[in-house]
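Pilot study result, target chain (150 residues):
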Amino acid sequence: MKVFQRERTLRTSGGLQVRDITDDVQEAVRESGIVDGIACVYSPHTTCCVRVNEFEQGFLEDFAELLKRLVPSESYYAHDDWGKRTENICKEDMEAGNGHSHCMAMLLGTAGESVPVRDGELQLGTWQRVLFLELDRERDRRWIVQVVGT
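Predicted structure:
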């Protein structure tokens, strides 16, 4: 059993940005030398995530609009109420609230995805891509891919 890990950084532009990172993940799988196993792709941030879906402009627009309807940024969030919030305070957050971004992330589930690897290739469906979703404002971010197998 082998384990390989790579970390990548990126600067997002914010505002529900979706970036296709499939080629970088596949590159890490090839670099790992692992032929059969699993690739776990993970975002260590609370207001962004990794998902597998189609990278098609119409879908991405539809999805962004759906999230904005479900979790409008104009609503009240206790997370952004500085008279109430006493934990995990960051000066950046005080300038622009991000309670809606945290709620979106919780709705989307876990912060990562696992994709099977066979014959050294990600086993994605025809239109599936590995996507990095920024749910907050412009920020420096990172994501990690860990490949485990033989």
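One observation from the pilot: The chain has one domain: 2-149. A full batch analysis is planned for the follow-on phase.
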